[in-house]
Specification:
The chain is mostly beta strands. 0% of the residues lie in helices and 50% in strands. The chain is built from no helices and 11 strands. The strands form 2 sheets. Strands 2, 4, 5, 6, 9, 10 and 11 form a 7-stranded mixed β-sheet that branches.
């Protein structure tokens, strides 16, 4: 059974950092693209960062470039999102997302975790 479980969210002050983790089970993560999406209250879901190691495809949302970094640890079947210099507008539920087809990019047929809440507030 495919499962993605996020952790690491919480309340942080502006300028602070968090590292989100997502443990995959039921499949081997290193054959897939990895990505993080987020959704803030009243706003559309948006892609934060996506990466595919087969061709080094890498995307970041413009507003997080230079502050966030996506990574993976294949030995742990886990992916991460390091978030630095957090801003109140980064407040959202963050989801890890993996395309269902190995090697595929994000075309709308994906596995989703349940999400972890990130709140940036003083």
């Amino acid at each position: 059974q495919v499962q993605l479980v996020e952790s690491g969210g919480g309340l942080v002050q502006p300028g602070g950092s968090l590292r989100l983790s997502c443990v995959a089970s039921g499949f081997t993560l290193d054959n897939y693209a990895i990505g993080w999406f987020r959704q803030a209250p009243g706003k559309k879901r948006e892609g934060v960062s996506c990466f595919r190691s087969s061709d080094d495809s890498l995307d970041y949302l413009d507003s997080v470039k230079g502050r966030f970094a996506i990574s993976r640890d294949n030995a742990k079947n886990t992916m991460y999102l390091q978030m630095n210099s957090l801003k109140p507008e980064d407040t959202a539920v963050y989801y890890c997302v993996v395309p269902k087809t190995p090697g595929s990019w994000y075309v709308g047929d994906d596995y989703w975790g349940r999400g972890t809440q990130v709140t940036v507030s003083s």
